[in-house]
Amino acid sequence: QVQLIESGGGLVHAGGSLRLSCAATGGTISMYTLAWFRQAPAKEREFVVGVSWVGARIISDSVKGRFTISRDEPQNTLYLQMNSLKTEDTAVYYCAGVRTTRIPTTQNEYQTWGRGTQVTVSS
Q1: Closest by CA position to 37, among listed 93, 98, 104, 86
Q2: Whose CA is closest to 121, among 26, 11, 34?
């Protein structure tokens, strides 16, 4: 199965934007559902947004209207565009993948994970 590597995290002021990338190696992302999860300090890892290989999406209410997920099949890469960032978006962001037609929202259903990238939003 594919390996996933996140990049693009950093420090940004509230109201700013960041774009995260998740590059897949060792295989193709086609037929994979891909998702972004995040884990804030002292909190459980939570589902943020996911996209199936046919383009269906599920997005959590906490980021709806601010975050956009996209996938580039030729580049074998997943993206997360984050706008209007808030301090509560501060977390380590992980991309995850699973070969399925559904979009699971629980982490234990995902087969492969990246190591995460830190996003810090200052006030």
Answers
A1: 93
A2: 11
What value, to the nearest 5°, has the Cα angle with vertex 34 and ends 28 and 61?
165
Q: Backbone phi, then psi, for 88, in 5-degree steps?
A: -70, -5
Predicted local confidence at residue 1, as pLDDT? 83
pLDDT tens-digit profile of 56-107? 999 999 999 999 999 999 999 999 999 999 999 999 999 999 999 999 999 9
Residue with tokens 């590059």: 23
Tell me which amino acid residue 110 is. Y
Q: What is the largest CA-CA distance in the chain?
A: 40
Q: How does pLDDT run across 8-19, given as a tens digit for each residue?
A: 999 999 999 999
- State the pLDDT at residue 50: 98
CB atoms within 10 A of CB 6: 22
Cα–Cα distance between 47 and 1 in angstroms, integer? Answer: 21
